[in-house]
Structures are given as C-alpha cells and as structure tokens.
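ok so dumb question maybe but i'm new to this and my supervisor (M.) told me to 'just get the structure for Fatty acyl-CoA reductase' and walked off. so i did the thing. is this what she meant?? sequence i used:
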Amino acid sequence: MTHVTMHETETTSVSDGLGIIRFLKGKSYLVTGATGFLAKVLIEKLLRASPEIGKIFLLIKSNDQESANKRLYDEIISSDLFKLLKQIHGSSYEEFMKSNVIGDIAQENLGFDSEIAANISDEIDVIISCGGRTTFDDRYDSALSVNALGPGRLLSLAKDCKKLKLFLHYSTAFVTGKKEGKVPETTLSIGGNINSDLNIEFELKLASEAVRMFHGSEENKKLKELGMERAQHYGWENTYTFTKAMGESVIHNQRGNLPVVIIRPSIIESSYKEPFPGWLQGIRMSAPLILAYGKDHIPHLLGDYESYWDIIPVDMVVNATIAAMAKHGCGNVPSLKLYNVTSTSHPNPLRLGELMDFSQQHLHDSPLRETSKDLDCIKFHSSIESFTSSVSNTIVKQESETKNGEGEAESHTPLSMKGKRKLKYFESLAKLYQPYLFFQAWFDDTNTRSLIQEMSMEERKMFGFDVRCIDWENYIFNVHLHGIKRVVFGGRSS
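this is what came out, is it supposed to look like this??
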C-alpha cells in the first residue's frame, strides 16, 4: 500500500456542473491494481487535476517491503506517464510516493493487519476497485479469487470506513455475455439476469478439486480449460467476462447501504489526449491483430469486416470515472449506478474492417520492420478452418522465400517446427478473439451521456469523455499506432 499526498496553494474553482474540482479537494482514495494500465492513468489525472487532493493509497501486491518499494519505483514513479507531473513538481515529485504497505485483493482482509486496516478505514473517502485478472483464458481458481471474490473483500473494508463517500468498481462492457442487440446499463445479479443455477461456492469447489487433482504444467492447463468450459456452459465467451459477471453479482448482493458506481469500459486502448496522446502500457487488445499483420506479414484475419470494434481511449475512461465520482460521492445515497463507457451507440462506431484498413495505410507508409515487400491487403475469413489454412499457406510461402529466395512454394511443403509454433499461436489467438471479431452488439450509454450533459463547459474541457469527438481514422493512424510502436520499440514510435 502506497499513499500519495500533494499540496498546492491554488486550485481551479468550478461554480457549476458536477463540481468535480470541489469534490476532489481533500479527498483520500484507496486504489487497487495500482500498477495496471488504467489505474496509473487515473492516479496521474487525480494528482494533476487536483493538487490539493488528500491521500491516494496504492494497493501493491508483493512478497515483502523491499520488492514493494521496487515495484512502486519501477512501475509507477519512473513511468513516462508521469513526466508532465515531474515537470510541474520537479524533484519533489517522487516524495509524493514514498511510503507503502503491501496488500492483495486475493487475500482475506486484503492481507492487512489490524493496525493498517484501522488506519485506512479512518482516512478513506473513496475506494476504487481497479484490480483484476484480465487474461481471457486465465486459470479458473485465480480468476475466481480476484474477479469474483475480490470485490466482496473490498466491500467488507468499505463497510468499516468511517467517512466513505463512494465505492467505485471497474467491470467490463462485455460482462453480460451478449453478442448482438442492445446491451443495457443494468446491473447483474444471480437469480436476476444471471442464471439462478450458477453458484459461486460450487464453482470454487470445482476449481479447488482441479488444483488437488493436477500438478505442474498439467495443473495450469487443466485450470485454464476448466475456466473456459464453465464460462461457455453458462453463456459467456471466456473466463474473464464470466468471473467479472460474478464480481458484479457479489457487489449487487453484498453492498448493503453503500453508494456504489460500476464503470463498464469496452476495449481500453491508448490515450486520446492526456497526459499526452498515444500512451499505452503493454500489448493490449488491438495490438496482436495489428502486429500479426504489420510485423509477421500475415494478411489474414478471422472476423467480419462490419463487426463493431468498440474501443475507448484510457483517458476518456478516467475522465468518466472522475465525473461519476463527483456526481455520486456527495450525497451518501445508498444507490447503485452503472455507466457503459463505450463507443458503439454513437453515430461514428468503429468497425473491425476500418481498424485494419487504417492500420494498413499507416504501416504502408511506416512499416514495423524493414522489408522490400509491400503489405498484402487483408482478407477476412468467416471460419477458423479457412483462416488456419490460409495462414498455414502464408507461413509455408514465407519459409520458402527465406530459404530459396522469391518463388512459389509447393503446396505440400511441410512447415518447420518454428512455423508450426507460429501457426499454433495465430490459431489460438483467433479462437480466443473470435467472439469479439464477429461482435454485433451495441452498448446503451444513456447514463454516460446524461453525465456529460450535467457537466459545465469548463468541466467538459478538463474532464472530457465524449467519444463523438473522436475521428477514428486520425486516432488509429496518428495516435494509437504510434502508441503501439512505442511499446514494441521500447519508447520509440518508429
């Protein structure tokens, strides 16, 4: 656990709208998942927008204090995300992040001793549940512990907080499992809009039995398979969305009189504007598709050209979060409000085909690797069989050209071991992504649009998240692809 405290003599005054700046002043926060992509952008914006903020307690999972300090420095303090804050506060910047204590949402009581828990419960105004396991085919036991049970552990702490104003939880827009039609801004609960046959305790028992039965690499494989099997049995596409749905149900059933906000972002990608355009951490959802094409020269994609590819820049998710905190963190009303922070319900939804077209245009002018060949146009495939066969033929051709120079490879030429591994990777990626590559649902964001309407013009400038202002071609071509390149090339965009 790390706390950040900042003090300045001046702050912005907002006299209308949601009163965001007034709300942020002096408030203290507990943020889980502090080293993650979304949490770090949130932390940066809170510190930059409100210098008179109280404290930000950063939950950092670690085995000991020394390694916790190292993670804090390596993954947060030294991140280029915070370079604007460093420019503002100079050498004092790091002093804002010096004290830390270890915690883990997968442990009972978050791994806190009684003294730490008491200290936190005395100070926290807002709990932000940002930690989670996001691998689609994660181990079932791990995903259950963090995504399904983690929110309940945080709620237990929240109920002990003496001045808590709000409990805010990040879910995902894909949590309902719907693949077509309208996805409403309504909460999930077992026995309500989740099959009443689903029993979290039974699922935990299944996972525990698998842990006892299998060992080593076999244990990991079987637990990953179990998660996907159970998810698909109940109508979800993967372990991640299934266990996040359980987590929402836990919040719905256990929140009591706490004021709760659930933020459901779609595919979170690189920053639109803040703190600078194109900031990205790691290889995220769109990047593997783009890298397969631009780096590996695989001009094939399983999917529908017209499918919605619902992405949202990370800074817009953060701004929507802060606006929702200000709206619901003032009245101590024991309500549960949900916001879909998405892009498909507006006049300019991004399509999968457009994502790849814009990427092709960019990579033609600025390739990911030196080559004398132009990229081929991408062919979309409607079946995994057609996709796999075409990718296999492409890899055979590439291997033949590498070995023998230009020329047609014979159709019966076998793949090398490296080629087989490459084919297996692309086939596995396609199967894992398949529900999203044929996605025809759209997300209702009435609550989110209403939130924008309540903001003053000054707040909209400072905390904007209206996706209708995004020119997707410009964002993909000039912002997002540069962000991906910075990740791939270690800080350089080309």
